Amino acid sequence: MDEDTTSSEKMKRDSDIKMEIVLDIIKGLCHADSKVKEFVELCNSITPLTPLEITVLSGGLTNYSYKIHVADKAVFAKLAFNYALWNPDWDGKYDVVRTENEALMMSKFHTLSPDNVAVPLHICDVTHPSMPSSEMKLLVTTWASNDEQLSNQFIDGHADTRVASSLALALAKLHQEPFDPAFNDGVRGVYLNIVEQTLDKMKELEEGGRKEGLPRTTAYIDVLPDSPVALYEIAKENYGKREALVHSDVHGFNVLVEHKPSLAELSTFGPTGTFTLCDWEMCYAGPIGRDLGIMAAFPLACALSHAISGHPDASYDVTNFVEIFWSTYVAARAKTEGPTRACEMYRNAIGWTGMFLSFYVLADIHLEFLPLSTTSRDFEIVQDSLGILTLNLLRLGFSECTTGSTLPELKAAFAAAVDEQVMFVQQTEQGRRPSRTRRSSRLRESGVRVSDTNMQVPQSRTLRGKVMAVVAMKRIEKGIKGMFVKDVGEKEEGGKEEDARKDGGGEKGKKEDEKEMQTSRGRNGATTKRFFTSF
């Protein structure tokens, strides 16, 4: 028997024991005299023919999530461990007190947005003779009726903007609550360690290293006016800002929405547009842009995937979700904080989007769920474009050159940065093949639910065709001048650069493009083209 088989068997035994522990605890809670309605309902539904059952939903690396159910009654349970195996470089303690803080935050959010979070029912310490050295904590909550992850909509290319608006308003309420600056500080270390790992990768690229599949990104670093490492250091410092209570993990896999209706119902989304925000264990006092930025990263990656697959309508749809999400949030905060502070929040959101995209590009997080084959040439092109977008958004969010920019300027610059890469992937593949059938979410079809506890950090180691392309250029004109270095493109045979806007309007279009751009020099003296003038 090889070592891998032995390890797998140990993990299976460990999983089975923990599942039995959780089921036994909840069986003990289910009695007719319980003050918790959900436990009484479970108790009344149990019969010799319909026993209480438990199903593993996700987890294994820092916690397990379960559905405990009988007949049509159910509760949710999370068993948390005092370690974080999803980050193998982290050997520190991942204190289970985070689970108590998770319950506190869920209760607080329930008072602010009662329809959008599960309600904590029970929390307790867990010990077992077979695991004498393990510190574990069990959290039991109500079962959320919303059972589909929002990211499935981004993968499909149709996103419910009702969710974008209501999620933004709910977070705006949370971010205005009084808070303890030291709240849940124990979760900071494991995330900062991931930032350090990614920063090391960024340093390798800036110092002339190469990551396979990122030729344009590595070339772009040479001509970027700001040092990516310096920008990343600013972002790392920003992580320590204690501006508000933040969920800290608001990506589309942690937002549950109504199940997609059947074809017979002739509707793309559920009737109410409700959502449930889950997985609060990483909540802490942090920068506001973190919650806004992480929500945007996966939709933008899906937008490029749809664009390169010949589906500009789907690309536009998911980027529109991000625009509505951010605009709704900023409008709500401007009423209480004023336009200047709201603009700072928007800028911070852009920077944090760049931070999370850097994990996608340098650590391959979440990319396996894109509507693309990870072994395809399209996937490589999209990941490379995400690298360019990462650098531009880090610069927009954290460079001194955007300090004092107005909200319209920032919105235009963000849109231009996204549009530039959407147009690149569209036109790179334009004419090479007919549009392909859009791929629906494999996750929905398989019934698999994605959790951060399933994902492991590698060990240290939109628009609508040519008309919208013109609109994108106009956005740049009206936005922040000189923000973006022209994408250097991929080298063709003979050393020629492939223009990012090839076939964008014939000879006349090329001449007009040349008028809109000028030559300048990047940080390392390399000559490149730049939109307009630099700051």
TrEMBL record:
Domain spans labelled Aminoglycoside phosphotransferase: 54-297
Positions of transmembrane segments: none
Polar residues composition bias: residue spans: 519-535
Protein origin, superkingdom: Eukaryota
Region (Disordered): 426-455, 490-535
One protein family per Pfam: APH
InterPro entries noted in UniProt: Aminoglycoside_PTrfase (IPR002575), Kinase-like_dom_sf (IPR011009)
Amino acid composition bias (Basic and acidic residues), ranges on this chain: 490-518
Record's protein name: Aminoglycoside phosphotransferase domain-containing protein
Species this protein is from: Triparma columacea
